[in-house]
Amino acid sequence: MELFPAMPYEEWLETKDTFHRFAQIVGKVRLAASPRRNHWWNVPFHLTGRGLTTRPMGLPNPFSIDFDLVGHRLIVDRVDGRSAEFSLVGQSVAGFYARLFEILDDFGIDVEIQAVPYDMADGTPFAQDTRHAAYDPVLVNRYWTVLSQVAQVLERFAADFCGKTSPVHHFWHTFDIAVTRFTGRVVGAAPGSDAVAREAYSWEVISAGFWFGDEERPWPAFYSYTAPEPNGLHEQPLWPDWAAWIPSRGSHLAVLKYDDARQSDDPVTTVLGFLASAYQAGAKLTGCDAARLASVDGVTDPYLEST
Questions:
Q1: Is 0.90 topped by the overall pTM?
Q2: Residue among 225, 281, 230, 284 at smallest CA distance from 252
């Protein structure tokens, strides 16, 4: 299998817009049916060997919802052994929404969601959206391949840090995959932040991830940011030298374009080096004790070499 296959933004935009809405519907069920965790860690999806999962949720009869992106089906499983599924191919957003909630109703699962897209230009309610109905299995499977490969690179990056860190998880609202390191300093979000941002950024963080592109930046890329952003962050050096800091909503993102990484001599080493350089930039300016929080290759045992 090719490492980091091509993922041109425009090529899969229609399929992406449809599947992103599918993901938001399931994600909103996850949000409504799961206990709240610090920094919203209960909200994102996790990866499986075939796609994405909500993980079990709900009491007294836990259930889970999985996207099988190899067989291209949505699967709902309940702890009592009941299971139902349907094909993702040929579904409009309205059809997907109706099918999922029919299954939940049949299973006796009572959950209410805000049934409109989050932070999308077209805010048509899910139940009325028959326009978004593009689902190309080849392109969705390529998205899944990229996602699963990137996840393993982020897991490798996560191994070198032993402080508080998030899982590697896929956010359905922003459609990125990320892992976040916490410096240990409680700072509180910026004044005027909404409830989502206040919880997400109540502690100082240095985050790393990958997103598939958007209208403003129509190309996939690896990224990193520090929040709150310390003065002078965007002046810190990045590696490789073709990575760059770009303005983003009043702050800055360190960005390494996916196509630049995949065409390098050693894509994995390039991405890890980029993420490390962005982390060091943030750690330097926030006063994070990077040496104390290091766990090279995931090892913290001080006696390893002597035994």
A1: yes
A2: 225
What length is written for the chain?
307
Q: Of the candidates 9, 11, 6, 16, which has an alpha carbon nearest to the alpha carbon of residue 175?
A: 16
Q: In whole angstroms, give the CA distance from residue 104 to residue 87.
A: 16
CA distances from 230 to 101, 225, 281, 286, 299 (A): 45, 10, 10, 7, 30
DSSP-based three-state secondary structure for 142: helix
Angle formed at CA 131 by CA 129 and CA 136, multiple of 5 degrees: 115
Over residues 114-135, the pLDDT tens digits come to 999 999 999 999 999 999 999 9
pLDDT digits (tens, 9 = 90+) for 67-119: 999 999 999 999 999 999 999 999 999 999 999 999 999 999 999 999 999 99
Could you tell me which residues come within 8 angstroms of residue 92 by beta carbon, excluding any fewer than 6 positions away?
A: 18, 129, 130, 131, 132, 133
Angle subtended at Cα 78 by Cα 82 and Cα 55, rounded to the nearest 5 degrees: 145
Beta partners for residue 75, in sequence order: 66, 85
